[in-house]
Amino acid sequence: MHTQNRNFAVTRQDGVAVLRLDVPDRTMNVVDASVIDELAAILDTMLTDDDVRGIVLTSGKPGAFGAGADLKSLPELANDPGTTDFLVRTHALMERMADSPKPIVAAIDGYALGGALEIALGASTILVTPSARLGLPESTLGLIPGGGGTQLILRRVEPTVAIEMMVAGRTLSAEKAVAAGLADDIVDADSLLATAIEIASTGQTTPRPHPTPDPKVATEVEAAAAAVRRPPSAGAAAALVHLVSTGLTVGRSAGLAAERESFLRLLRGDESAALIHMFHVETDAKRRFRGTSLRPTTMAVVGAGQMGAGIAATAVSHGINAIVRDIDEGRIAEARDRAAKAGSDDTRAAWSGTTDWAGFADADAVVEAVFESPELKRDTLAQVDAQVGPDTLITTNTSAIPIAGLADSVSRPERFLGTHFFSPVEKMPLVELVPHDGTAAASVDRAGAIARALGKLPVVVADYPGFFTSRVYARWLLEGLRLLADGADPALIEKEAREVGFPVGPLQASDEVTLQLVMDASIVQVAERVLTDRVDVPAIKDLANRLLEAGVRGKRFGQGFYSYQDGRRAGINPDVVAVAAPAGASVPAGVAGERLLLAFVTESLLCWDDATLCHPDDGDLAAVLGIGFPRALGGPFHWIDRQGAAAVLARCQAFDGKAFPVGDTLPRLAEVNGRFTDETRRDRPGTPGSHLSDQVAERV
């Protein structure tokens, strides 16, 4: 017997109904209302059919059981008044499966994530292949499992393990899933279905009851959730603790009712919208630079300092051969150790160091990563150019030095551009690609493909001073100093920065890199060139100099904006207030956080208006992944879209218009209730047509 439904093909074998989930026109099974309602109808039939002894759930998609909901459908789901009824039907189905008198066996090959795993959790037995990956990653999108997963997982997994897995959004390998109790056994893919049918054909099932309510467990659950470092969503983490605790102290039905309420509340909230937006922009960035045919075999790096060593270590950890050149053999040895720690032994990629130019002629790409000096970079690039072949891509790693000013150092400037990596390179996912006017489009594509081969997300930005990230970050750091000069309490600046979502305040950020570097990079290289019409840069520079003279240097010196003991912060340095603030000056509570947020946002606005960015989504990606804009806000442009352009315009206008300029686009969108995400993508940054781009070009 074979029955073909829209999503499920049903066959019978040895008294077992085999349900193959195969959602049409999808490469991956997604779970929506049609899947849930169809499965419920099929299950009702099979549970009342005396000829059916057991049921097997499997996938018709090779190597994949399924995922959760289609993310593009979530806004519609959030606004649909019928969503509550859909969740009620889903939970009723899951309870019917969990209480089934007949065995239900889930046979999982490949990924089973989100809603697909929740369906499997209703089964009495879960079999997985060695390649299986199981998880409930909804928290990474600011959500919780909404298909009963927060309660059904408790039938299998210890509560503390379950809460850690869900709060962190972790996926488990087949071995770890079995060890945790999430799955029952690992079966070879060739025998997966036969084994599942054999188990189901017995007609016997071992009950998996919901844990007996125990108020003591709630405390353990809360502690386990708190132990997760940097959970992807604070809102989801809090909801998960509440839901698991409810299920363990009151019972499954109460837990499911609470799950429905929490799921809808989070789905309609700002944090989930931001995290889903970030998922989409990251996916789009990957899609734009797929370029597997452009993947390099060998990369060469000039400079074995922190950035150069990190780039080379990242290359070998991704299976790309690396050559590192430096005149200091000691630094080469340190770079070699760093590469070893990055996993070069595992990938079998070759790493070599040299004090001359051995191997450079065979490199597909060379990254110059010497000290941030235009003169040194020009000299180094000329030497690189003399060593490599005509097709070698040459890039310079810099955070702010204009690329056009270096381009004539190479004989073929069309194959040259900037690549701004972030420190530590092994961990930071962003790379800014900075073409100059003469960079060929093919070279940008190659650089993007190399970034993807290194596991990075590339964004293309204009060759304006500070590019996007260094420029916006400089404006944010300077706002911290402006607040000090206006009399703001340093502790209040830091507290309010964190309250609006920044992971650290501008003073701690300065301490981490040293105030001297802030002076050299953010003030001299960026602020003096592009921020003078917005803030009093000379006054800020004078303040920074006075702070340096007073010993406010940074964490590694033991004294910065904070005092340090054994490398740990020990409160605000009392010398800061004495140096920075005029007597009697103060800043009201709530102002510092707002100014820091709007400083970041308004500088981002100008970067869109002057064509530094190809699209506002790129600014969101770079801001979150590169310079610490709160991920829970989704980037500066998404934050504006979520707040409403008119509301943000009013907030900016409440402050000094000179310091917080709104540019051209924000007022236009405010008039028509428009959104930045709907703006047209530019083919390349630096497109003429804005009076702001002309002004910046003159300064360059």
Overview of this protein structure:
The protein is an alpha/beta fold and 700 residues long. Helices cover 48% and strands 13% of the residues. It has an eight-stranded mixed beta sheet with strand order 14-13-12-15-16-17-18-19, with helices on both faces. It is globular. One of its GO terms (biological process) is fatty acid beta-oxidation. This is Fatty oxidation complex alpha subunit FadJ. It comes from Gordonia rhizosphera NBRC 16068.
Q: Give the overall average pLDDT.
A: 94
Highest CATH level, the class of the largest domain: Alpha Beta
Total number of strands: 21
CATH architecture title of the largest domain: Alpha-Beta Complex
* Biggest β-sheet: strands ordered side by side in the sheet: 14-13-12-15-16-17-18-19
Helix content: 40-55%
**Biggest sheet statistics:** 8 strands, mixed
CATH topology of the largest domain: 2-enoyl-CoA Hydratase, Chain A, domain 1
Give the radius of gyration.
28 Å
Measured distance between first and last alpha carbons: 75 Å
Structural class: alpha/beta
The oligomeric status of these chains comes to single chain
Overall shape: globular
Q: Can you tell me the CATH superfamily of the largest domain?
A: 2-enoyl-CoA Hydratase, Chain A, domain 1
Query: What share of the residues does DSSP label as strand, in percent?
Result: 5-15%
Low-confidence stretches: 688-700
InterPro entries: 3-OHacyl-CoA_DH_NAD-bd (IPR006176), 3HC_DH_C (IPR006108), 6-PGluconate_DH-like_C_sf (IPR008927), ClpP/crotonase-like_dom_sf (IPR029045), Enoyl-CoA_hydra/iso (IPR001753), FA_oxidation_alpha_subunit (IPR050136), NAD(P)-bd_dom_sf (IPR036291)
Pathway: Lipid metabolism; fatty acid beta-oxidation
Protein name: Fatty oxidation complex alpha subunit FadJ
Keywords: Fatty acid metabolism, Lipid degradation, Lipid metabolism, Lyase, Multifunctional enzyme, NAD, Oxidoreductase
